[in-house]
Specification:
273 residues, alpha+beta, Alpha-Beta Plaits, 2 domains, 11 strands
Length: 273
C-alpha cells in the first residue's frame, strides 16, 4: 500500500477518514480496501480525545470494513471492542468515595498557541494524572478534553495523588518553555453508581471545586477535610479558603487549600462570586 501524498490526502472528503480530531486533523483513511486494513491494524495506536471520539471512529471503521468485505478477527477484533479503554463501572467503589478532578488551566489558549503540538502535551498530562492516580489506588471514571476524573476509596489516596501530580508538573519542562499548569479539585460524597457511571451531587460538586481553583493549586471540600482528618498523612496541611456558594449548588461549600512540601502556596483568590 503506497503512502498517501499530501495532495492525495487533501483531495479526499472527510468521510474517507475514520477519525477527525477537534483541530481538524484527519486520521485513519478508509477510502479503499488497503487503507481500511491498515486502519484496522493501527486503530489501537491512535490517541483519541475521548471515548466518544473513539466510539465514533470505531463505528466508521467497522462500517468501512463491512463495505469491503473485511472481517476483523483475532487481535484486531479485540482492539475494536466498544468498551476497550473504558472503565468497568461494575467494579468501581460504592458508598463513601472521594473524587479527584483535574483540568488544564487556560487549555483553549494553549491549544490555539500550540496547534498540532497540543495533542502530545494533552497525552503527556493525562498519562501523568493516570499514573499518579493508580499509584494511590485510584480508578479512572471519565476523561473528556483536558478534564480527568478519578475515584478513590479513601480521601488520603486522592490527596496524595493530587500532590504527586502537582509536584511532577512543577518540575516538568515543556518544549518551547510552555507553562502548563493543572487545577485539582477533591470532594468526598456518596454518589450513585449506575451502569454508565456515577451520578449525583458528589459528581457535580467535585467539578465545581476544581473549577474555582488555579493551576498548581489543590482545593478540597470540607467533606473531604473531615473525612481525611483521622488518617491525614504526615506533612499535609490545610488552609481555609472560606465557605462559598458554588455555581449550581444550593448550599455553600467549605473549601480548603492543600499545603505540602513542593507545592506552590500563593495563588489569586478562588474564582467564585
Amino acid at each position: 500500500m503506497g503512502k498517501l501524498t499530501a495532495r492525495e490526502r487533501a483531495s479526499l472528503p472527510d468521510r474517507a477518514f475514520a477519525y477527525i480530531d477537534a483541530q481538524g486533523g484527519r486520521r485513519l483513511p478508509i477510502h479503499d480496501e488497503a487503507h481500511v486494513r491498515n486502519a484496522l491494524a493501527r486503530f489501537d495506536r491512535v490517541e483519541f480525545e475521548d471515548e466518544a471520539a473513539r466510539e465514533q471512529a470505531r463505528r466508521r471503521l467497522l462500517n468501512a470494513a463491512r463495505r469491503f468485505g473485511i472481517l476483523p478477527v483475532g487481535f484486531v477484533a479485540a482492539q475494536l471492542r466498544p468498551d476497550r479503554g473504558s472503565p468497568d463501572f461494575s467494579k468501581l467503589p460504592t458508598g463513601s468515595v472521594t473524587f479527584l478532578m483535574t483540568d488544564i488551566e487556560r487549555s483553549t489558549r494553549l491549544a490555539e498557541r500550540l496547534g498540532d503540538r497540543y495533542a502530545p502535551l494533552l497525552k503527556d498530562v493525562r498519562a501523568l494524572v493516570r499514573i499518579a492516580g493508580r499509584r494511590r489506588g485510584g480508578r479512572r471514571v471519565d476523561s473528556h478534553g483536558d478534564e480527568y476524573l478519578t475515584v478513590f476509596e479513601t480521601p488520603e489516596g486522592a490527596i496524595e495523588a493530587a500532590i504527586e501530580i502537582q509536584r511532577s508538573l512543577a518540575i516538568r519542562r515543556w518544549p518551547g518553555k510552555i507553562d502548563c499548569r493543572v487545577r485539582a479539585g477533591i470532594h468526598t460524597g456518596h454518589p450513585t453508581l449506575t451502569e454508565s457511571g456515577y451520578v449525583g451531587l458528589a459528581v457535580n460538586t467535585v467539578s465545581r471545586v476544581c473549577y474555582v481553583g488555579h493551576g498548581g493549586q489543590i482545593v478540597v471540600s470540607g467533606a473531604t477535610r473531615t473525612a481525611v482528618a483521622p488518617s491525614l498523612p504526615d506533612g499535609i496541611r490545610f488552609t481555609s479558603l472560606g465557605r462559598h456558594r458554588l455555581t449550581g449548588l444550593s448550599r455553600p461549600v467549605s473549601l480548603y487549600q492543600v499545603r505540602a512540601d513542593g507545592l506552590s502556596e500563593t495563588f489569586p483568590p478562588i474564582r467564585v462570586g
